[in-house]
Design brief:
7-stranded mixed beta sheet, single chain, 39% helix, 21% strand, elongated, alpha/beta
């Protein structure tokens, strides 16, 4: 028997809530966590330092809640999904019939580009649906942009008021529908300038060589550079094998940063979890590796075709 969700519900139950004070945050999240502990369910808190401290102080020691550092967990959407699924699988293996997880997703109000986290919130409805997860995603109205609030209402099936009343989100969209019309690509300032590298139909090794020429300006760490080169090679391979010619590689650089785009005239991957889960379809492993290794990855679809943007170094 699952507590707090409609009778017979299977898979993920995905809620959001908005708050504008620490007191309002506690008024919604504390009951969520306490009810999980009281029901004997694994209960996880996934917040950054300030909100974790509020919850720890309110619940006291030996609360029964597993506190996980939200900053470390949410390094990127692909990393978060991998860790989330490990947590869920471990609890299910131990016999859990429901796992409660409350946590905040990064966004521009916390200094993080939003596009791939919007994709994450939509894809969560699919990639966690094999588990009995009860998820609560609060957003702080004091720092959250309006677009993020709109997307939260469109990627969660339910909304919880400050008084604890649950309502269905009548604006909810299935992941594929949401991604088709709601998510717009993050604007990259460097792309306002002419690219320093532009190569048509490059072989993967030519793409790596072209991007390497920018290292003298960017001076990335060896890990960042190697991750970008592997991701570029995978992106070019995907475009050549699964996309539609012509393929175009462009790249820009600034001290501490390199931006690479690979575009083709195909429709791009159809899977909503492309890049967020390994091998989620043709080219899925390469996209997943890019999401693991780059500071930021952006997928763009238009009437002209599909492109992927890879950012190494500083993502903003």
């Amino acid at each position: 028997m699952r507590s707090g969700v409609p009778d017979g519900h299977v898979g993920i139950f995905h809620e959001t809530t908005f708050y504008d004070s620490d007191e309002q945050f506690l008024s919604v999240v504390l009951p969520f966590l306490r009810q999980g502990v009281a029901a004997g369910e694994p209960t996880v808190s996934l917040f950054a330092e300030h909100n974790q401290r509020l919850l720890r102080d309110a619940m006291g020691p030996e609360s029964g809640v597993e506190f996980v550092d939200g900053g470390g967990h949410h390094l990127s959407p692909a990393v978060a999904i991998q860790r989330h699924r490990q947590i869920l699988a471990g609890y299910v293996a131990d016999g859990a019939t429901q796992i409660r997880i409350a946590g905040e997703v990064p966004h521009p109000g916390t200094g993080v580009p939003w596009e791939w986290w919007a994709r994450y919130e939509a894809a969560a409805n699919d990639v966690y649906n094999e588990y009995p997860m009860y998820g609560l995603c609060p957003y702080d109205l004091r720092i959250t942009p309006e677009q993020v609030i709109d997307h939260a209402r469109r990627t969660h099936t339910h909304f919880v008021t400050a008084e604890g009343v649950r309502e269905r989100c009548d604006t909810y969209q299935r992941p594929a529908d949401f991604l088709a019309d709601a998510v717009t690509a993050w604007v990259e300032p460097l792309e306002a300038e002419p690219p320093l590298v532009e190569v048509a139909d490059p072989a993967p090794h030519q793409a790596r060589q072209a991007v390497t020429t920018l290292q003298s300006l960017a001076r990335l760490s060896s890990d960042d550079l190697n991750g970008l080169l592997l991701s570029t090679s995978e992106a070019v391979t995907n475009a050549l094998v699964h996309g539609r010619a012509p393929v175009l590689l462009r790249a820009w650089a600034a001290p501490g940063r390199i931006v690479v785009t690979v575009s083709d005239h195909g429709p791009g991957p159809a899977d909503v979890a492309a890049g967020l889960m390994p091998a989620a379809g043709p080219g899925g492993l390469g996209l997943w590796l890019a999401h693991q290794m780059c500071a930021y990855v952006s997928l763009r679809r238009s009437a002209e075709g599909f492109s992927i943007r890879l950012v190494a170094g500083s993502p903003d």
